[in-house]
Amino acid sequence: MLSAPDPENHVYDKPPAHANADWTIDQNWPAYTDEEHATWDTLFARQCKMLPGRAAQAFMDGVDILQLSKAGIPDFDELNRILMDATGWQVVAVPGLVPDDVFFDHLANRRFVSGNFIRKPDQLDYLQEPDIFHDVFGHVPMLADQRFADYMEAYGRGGLRALEFGTLKQLARLYWYTVEFGLIQEAEELRIYGAGIVSSYGESKFALESDSPNRIMFDLERVLRTEYRIDDFQQNYFVIPGLEELLRVTVETDFKPVYEKIADMPDIAIAEIVEGDELLTHGTQDHASAQSGDAVII
Length: 298
Ligand SMILES: [Fe+2]
What we know:
The chain is of the alpha/beta class.
């Protein structure tokens, strides 16, 4: 979640020989095959047909601003020229899992790390590791929005602090329930802005339309205490009233006393409803109940 793994799940303890000291590598755009570009185009067309009216306006605007409708996998050099102009962010390729401090340092300096591989044509619907479609289509349009761009930088700085405090587990939940799986109130309805949803055909519908998950108004302390699952559609979605509010809460809150306060409180189990929750949907959890096997919970 916090890093960009490659398909073989390479884990390095120092930058590999072909990487720079900050772990970045060349995207090597000319190496993509026609089949890989075609996979991007298939995924892009499918999501773009479904997302109008479902995705947040900021996401749809980002797709336009960044000219993502151009055929084929985006070339980071071209993409970055537009993104830098819009919000001062850039996308950088990395060779696999990068250490947390490297990941946060990139975010704090307005660099979003992305894998450069794309899923195989038989993996359109399910992929455990984030590929370039997830990382670029899912994440980068929101980075063209100034409010979200500032939020992500603040998150990176917060990540470096969380490493000092030993509270990475708690902070990672904020990323999960906003950057990856966040919902937003907009035009008197719910829309999606989380990258894990907008890049998934199935979850784009499920997150908004299913009776199964809980939909709960965002509360920072509550989110920092809430476990999440990484192996299926989410059982909770947290809803922000707007991007300004998300940025405001993140920038204005001193997280250290919050971490100290919640250190003595129990984690909140997935799907558990607690006192103080502002529930928009009390989910049936039918989808989760129908799945066999144990959930993979973090
Ligand atoms: Fe992601």
